[in-house]
Design a protein that fits this description.
Elements lengths: L3 H9 L3 H9 L3 E3 L2 E2 L12 E3 L2 E4 L7 E6 L30 E2 L8 E7 L2 H8 L7 E7 L5 H9 L1 E3 L2 E3 L3 E4 L8 E5 L6 H8 L4 E9 L2 E2 L8 E3 L2 H13 L6
Parallel strand pairs: 7-13
Antiparallel strand pairs: 1-2, 1-3, 3-4, 5-7, 5-15, 6-7, 8-12, 8-13, 9-10, 11-12, 13-14
């Protein structure tokens, strides 16, 4: 059973404390009726925060690919008034309940999926599905062979050894130096892995998630995913075996 509190958290990205306070303060409505009990069951209907629709009854599913520029926050709402990735979505592509799938930090650019389909969000973000994510990066100083070897051997992040699935130097790629593929989605994981070997990332772009490629989509632009692209994302995520304990 989904509670009103959980529905607000999922729809906005607010912390549990802030979502709880928003409901208690009478800022949340279901089908235009204010609700103040965070534990109340939420079984559907138009969900609003401060009069703005944040989730709607089941309807048409929307799947978007955005080439996120640096400087935008990957969330639906930002209490500090900073620009979010939703600000980049044209009005004709916006849909009720649209939200980012996972996160890119403020300084990272590249491929970001947005959807109002909770099932796709789950299969792409749940750790057991191990969906690959490929990043291109540039360091403040070129990586040494010792640093690359240390990364391939594994560095400790969040109390456990982490290593890239693949790591290679890029040739004739312009501003980027390395390509790193990971299957996890730890907070700022790529930057923290690089920092752990004594280097620093100055440019970071995600270029692939699963089978989906950023391609030549210009920075700041957005497009609809094709039906085969959506089907492929579902298929590969669900077919990936859970990691062994």
């Amino acid at each position: 059973m989904t509670t009103l509190l959980r529905a607000v958290i999922d729809a906005t990205g607010l912390s549990r404390r802030k979502a709880f306070a928003a409901i208690r303060d009478g800022r949340v409505a279901v089908d235009a009726t204010l609700r103040t009990d965070p534990s109340q069951p939420y079984t559907g209907g138009d969900l609003s925060l401060d009069g703005a629709l944040i989730a709607a009854s089941e309807g048409k599913k929307t799947y978007l690919l955005l080439n996120k520029p640096p400087g935008f926050i990957t969330t639906r709402l930002d209490e500090l008034g900073r620009r979010t990735v939703l600000d980049l979505i044209p009005v004709n592509l916006r849909a009720s309940g649209l939200h980012p799938v996972g996160r890119l930090d403020r300084d990272t650019s590249g491929l970001l999926l947005l959807t109002n389909d909770g099932d796709l969000t789950f299969v792409l973000t749940h750790p057991s599905h191990e969906v690959e994510k490929e990043y291109w990066l540039r360091l403040r100083q070129p990586a040494t062979e010792d640093q690359l070897a240390a990364l391939r051997s594994g560095v400790e992040i969040d109390g456990a050894p982490r290593r890239p699935l693949r790591l290679r130097r890029l040739v004739s790629s312009g501003q980027f130096e390395l390509a790193m593929t990971i299957r996890e989605g730890r907070r700022r994981q790529v930057r923290r892995m690089i920092l752990a070997v004594g280097a620093e990332v100055v440019l970071l772009r995600r270029v692939r998630e699963g089978s989906l490629l950023l391609g030549s989509l210009p920075e700041g632009a957005v497009r609809n995913l094709t039906e085969p692209e959506v089907a492929s994302l579902f298929s590969e995520a669900k077919s990936t075996p859970a990691p062994k304990p």
